Amino acid sequence: MEVDAIIRRRNGEWIAVEIKLGGRAAVEAAAASLTKLRDDRIDPAKVGAPRRLVVVTATGFAYERTDGVAVVPITALGP
């Protein structure tokens, strides 16, 4: 399991981010890592549930998977 970044707001909300430049297999592996973090590695009573799990990709469209993981191309994050 790996996570590239945890971004936390002052109010305690947080997201976990995986950055993958590869194709579908890389996105699948990243999503599996993020859902493992959410389901097995954290105690929501202590740190709260993640507000969002995100895989940032090099290209493509933004969408949300059925497991709740958002897949977002890097071009959607800025101008």
Structural commentary:
This protein has 79 residues and is an alpha/beta fold. The protein has one domain. 28% of the residues lie in helices and 29% in strands. The protein has a five-stranded mixed sheet with strand order 1-2-3-5-4. A hairpin with a 5-residue loop joins strand 1 and strand 2. The termini are far apart. The model has no long low-confidence stretch (mean pLDDT 95).
Which helices and strands occur, and which strands form pairs?
Elements: E1 5-8, E2 14-19, H1 24-41, H2 44-47, E3 52-57, E4 63-64, E5 69-73
Parallel strand pairs: 2-3, 3-5
Antiparallel strand pairs: 1-2, 4-5
- Count of discrete structural domains: 1
Q: Given the helix and strand composition, which structural class is it?
A: alpha/beta
Strand order of the largest sheet: 1-2-3-5-4
Order of helices and strands: EEHHEEE
Q: Over all CA atoms, what is the radius of gyration?
A: 12 Å
Question: In oligomeric terms, what are we looking at?
Answer: single chain
- What best-fitting shape do the alpha-carbon axes yield? globular
Residue stretches low in confidence (pLDDT < 50, at least 5 long) are none
* Rounded mean pLDDT score: 95
- Beta-strand residue fraction: 25-35%
Q: How would you characterize the largest beta sheet?
A: 5 strands, mixed
Record field, number of beta strands: 5
Distance between the termini: 31 Å
The DSSP helix count reads 2
Proportion of helical residues: 25-40%
